[in-house]
Write a structure and sequence with these properties.
Radius of gyration: 21 Å
Structural class: alpha+beta
Mean pLDDT: 91
Number of strands: 8
Distance between the termini: 46 Å
Order of helices and strands: HEEHEHEEEEE
């Protein structure tokens, strides 16, 4: 009952702002509510406050005692939803698939997956030495075990 009410309030708040979307939602047995958000243009502190208020101001602490945490998905958090890949086009990713880790620039997303491009050094076809070649790989979402943005400082 309590969880359904919180989930309805959260859904209404997210519908109001079409740029935000839910990454994770949980309520523990002692009514600790945890909401993790992401957004097409990132998530600001004001976005978190707006969602928090939409939930908290519509619940009665006299009926249920609860704590509420609304946070954004961290920059180093793994991507979970296809919508997260779309907002990160042009950034460098580390993508783990079936034992392989591929680092490359995310150049496109499709309905089924992503397209990564990177440069690699390979032996020359004739003679000694190496040559730099451009690589490109399409990866299905189903094959991605983990994908994270590589942050540069």
């Amino acid at each position: 009952m309590f969880k359904d009410k919180v989930q309805a309030l959260l859904s209404d708040a997210l519908e109001e702002d079409g740029k935000l979307f839910l990454i994770d939602f949980s309520i523990t047995t002692d009514n600790k509510i945890r909401v993790v958000l992401d957004g097409d243009d990132g998530v600001t502190v004001q976005d978190c406050m707006k969602i928090s208020r939409a939930i908290e101001h519509n619940l009665d602490r006299e009926e249920e005692d609860f704590s509420l945490e609304v946070a954004s998905a961290g920059a180093a958090s793994p991507m979970i939803l296809p919508r997260q890949y779309k907002k990160n086009i042009g950034r460098k990713l580390a993508v783990k698939t079936n034992g392989d880790v591929i680092e490359g620039n995310l150049t496109a997303t499709t309905t089924d997956g992503i397209v990564l491009e990177w440069k690699a050094r390979e032996p020359k076809p004739i003679g000694k030495g190496k040559v730099t070649v451009q690589k490109k790989k399409e990866i299905n979402f189903a094959d991605i075990q983990e994908a994270k943005v590589i942050l540069k400082f």
